[in-house]
Amino acid sequence: MATLYVTEQGARIEREYRRLLIAKEDQVLLAVPAGRVSHVVLVGNVGVTTPALISLLREGIGLSLISRWGQLRGRLMPPMGKNITLRHRQYERARDPGFCLAVSRAYVGGKLRNYRALARRMARSRPQMDQAQITRIAECVRRIGLVRDLATLRGVEGEGSRAYFAIYRQALEPGLGFERRTRRPPKDAVNAMLSLGYTLLTDNLITACEIVGLDPYDGFFHSDKYGRPALALDLVEEFRGLIVDSVVLNMVNRGMVRADDFQPGPEGGVYLTPRGMRIFFRQYAARLNTEVIHPLARRRLSYQKCFEVQARLLVRVIMGEDDAYRPFLTK
Question: Among 66, 126, 252, 297, which residue has the fewest nearby CB atoms (within 10 Å)?
Answer without folding.
Answer: 126
